[in-house]
From TrEMBL:
Protein family per UniProt: Belongs to the IPP transferase family.
Catalytic class of the enzyme: transferase
NCBIfam families reported for this sequence: miaA
Species this protein is from: Pedobacter jamesrossensis
Name the record gives this protein: tRNA dimethylallyltransferase
Amino acid sequence: MPSSPKLKTLIVIVGPTAIGKTALAIEVARHFKTEIISADSRQFYKEMEIGTAKPDLGELTAAKHHFIDSHSVNTLFSTGDFELEALKTVEEIFKNHDLAIMVGGSGLYINAVVNGLDEMPEIDLKIREKLNKQFLEEGIVVIQNQLKEYDPEYFEKVDQNNPQRMIRGLEVYLSTGKKLSSMLSATKKQRPFNIIKIGLNTDRAKLYEQINTRVDKMIALGLVEEVKSLSEFRKYNALNTVGYTEVFDYLDKKISLDEAILSIKQNTRRFAKRQLTWFRRDEEINWFQPNQTEEILNLISEQLKKV
C-alpha cells in the first residue's frame, strides 16, 4: 500500500510584546525557506506604523510576510475574518512549501487559527447601543468594572484598554447570561495540518527594559507626529490601543508628553503580562529564551521527523 502523504506543518511563534518574535520568525522562515503570517491585530492596519512596531523594510525583505498593512483602520476586521483569511493563506503557502509560520502576540487571533472559533450568539442590539452610549458618556472604567464582575476570565485575557473588546464581553453576557470566556474554543476544530508551538519569554526585568527601550525608540521615530496625522481616524476602534490613546490624551492637553510616555510604558508592561498569562495556559507551547534560535530550530527539525 502507498504511504499516506505527509502532513504539512504550521509553526506558531508566540510571546509577549518586545520579546523578539519577529526576529525569530524571520530566522525560522529563512532556515526552512518559507513565508510568515502576522497574527498581530495592530499590524494589519496600514495607517499605523511606528506605534505597532511593524517589521522594518529589511525584515520584510528577508522573508515574505502576510497581513502586514493588509487593511485600513476604517475597515472592520474581526477575529472571525482573520480565521478565514489566515487559513486561506496557510493553504496557499502549503501549495509551495511544507511549512508555514504564524507569529504574533494576539492570543485571540492565534487561537482562532489553531483551534477555531465557536459560533457566537445573537446579540441584543439595544444592549450594544446602550453600552456604546455608556462608554462615550462615562468612559472605559465603568465598562471595565462591569466586565470584571460578570466575566473575570475574559477580562483578564483581553486588552483592557480596548473598548470594543470590553463591550463585546459585556454584551454577550447581558444578552445571553453566559460568559464569553466559556464560549471561546470550547470545541477545538481539527485542522488538516500539524502544529508546532514555540513560545518566547525571558526574565521580567529584562523584558520590561526592552519594552521601555522600544517605547523610547517609537517616540524618537516620530510617534507623536504619527498619532497627530491620524486624528481624523481616532473614532475607529483600531486607534483605541496602547501607544495611541496616551498620545491622543497628550494632544488633547490632558497630560504632559512625559506622562504620556510613562503611561505607554506602563500599559505596555501590563499588556505583556496579560499576554503571558494567556499563553502560559497552553501546555502545547515549547518555551525558550529569545537567544535560543539554534535550540528552537533543532526542536522543530526533531518534531518534523515524527510527522
